Amino acid sequence: MSRRVASALLASALLASALVGCSTDHRPADQAAPPAAQPTTPTPAATPSAPAIPAGSAPERSFAVGVRQLKLNRDGDRPLPVTVWYPAAGRAGGKPTSAAEAAEGKFPVVVFSHGLGGRPADYATLLTRWAAAGFVVAAPTFPHTSHGSDRNVLDVLKQPADVSYVLTQLLALDGRAGDPLRGRLATDRVAAAGHSAGAVTTIGLFTAGRDERLAAGIVFAGTALGVGTAFAGASAPQLFVHGEADEVVQYAAGKAVYDKVPWPKAMLSLPKGDHGRALLGDGRSLRVVADTTIEFLRWALYGDAEAKERLPSAAARNNLATLDNHL
């Protein structure tokens, strides 16, 4: 493991200790409260409805990948540079090309949140594979939890609102004259994903900071500390990915959140997986994670029933992971 990655993982460990006073469920006022103000928790539906997954099929071919940068700033004091990977015209394979022409078609959107001390580039191998499979992937760099920032772990609680802001700005590009992504975004087919502190952010987008535009979520090594498990709103399938040897966020903590999800869900468990190495570099574990998450996104966002059927096989490849499947 590189020194930078090791530092990022060590920094991620601070998240658990900093938020240790937070509850995984919202408590009455006379009990311990989180150390930062929380948004009002939406009231979850009494009986979760079936997810509104459109019938369709995902692209069968791989795409070339383009990459661009957006300079966003929420409220003038939260700079949010965003890296966007997208399906591009041209021959598949090779490195992402800056300012490449977008491929023909309408592509679902995934917003990805990095871990504490991380940055979008750390996850480029995984995220470019998502883009090559036919998804537009937007990854913001958060102002206080990214590499080179002050790493204020409590700022994670503000990040669900950051993601919602980024999503609004990104989806607006679909109708902006002259933008390379004009007419290329499936604005009604959107998912959120994130790792570690970014997984907390992602969970928050389905609980205290519910963004109703989100149709699905992927949680990598996540915990609900600070954002709770009051999953709310319309049914949104969830895929959890967690290493059983995670040295930062215990596997049991991630499993406890997964158990609270009231919607269709699955959990990919890596018996030898740690907190994040499988996501940060190419290898057999990343290939299993990439293939499984791609099949999940093909089903959840494209409505590809065959992808849902292939998902268990993708998870079982090379016997590196197990899948608890309730999709």
Keywords for this entry:
327 residues, alpha/beta, Rossmann fold, 10 strands, 28% helix, disordered N terminus
Give a short account of the largest sheet. 10 strands, mixed
What is the CATH architecture term of the domain at 3-24 and 61-262?
Answer: 3-Layer(aba) Sandwich
Rounded mean pLDDT is: 87
User: What's the total number of strands?
Assistant: 10
CATH topology of the domain at 3-24 and 61-262: Rossmann fold
Strand content: 15-25%
- Which range best describes the helical content: under 10%, 10-25%, 25-40%, 40-55%, 55-70% or over 70%? 25-40%
SSE order, one letter for each helix or strand: HEEEEHEHEHEEHEHHHE
Q: What is the assigned CATH homologous superfamily of the domain at 3-24 and 61-262?
A: Alpha/Beta hydrolase fold, catalytic domain
Question: What structural class do the secondary elements suggest?
Answer: alpha/beta
Q: From the alpha-carbon coordinates, what is the Rg to the nearest angstrom? A: 18 Å
The N- and C-terminal alpha carbons lie at a distance of 34 Å
CATH top level assignment of the domain at 3-24 and 61-262: Alpha Beta
Order of strands, widest sheet: 3-1-2-5-4-6-7-8-9-10
Overall 3D form: globular
Count of individual helical segments: 8
Low-confidence region ranges? 1-48
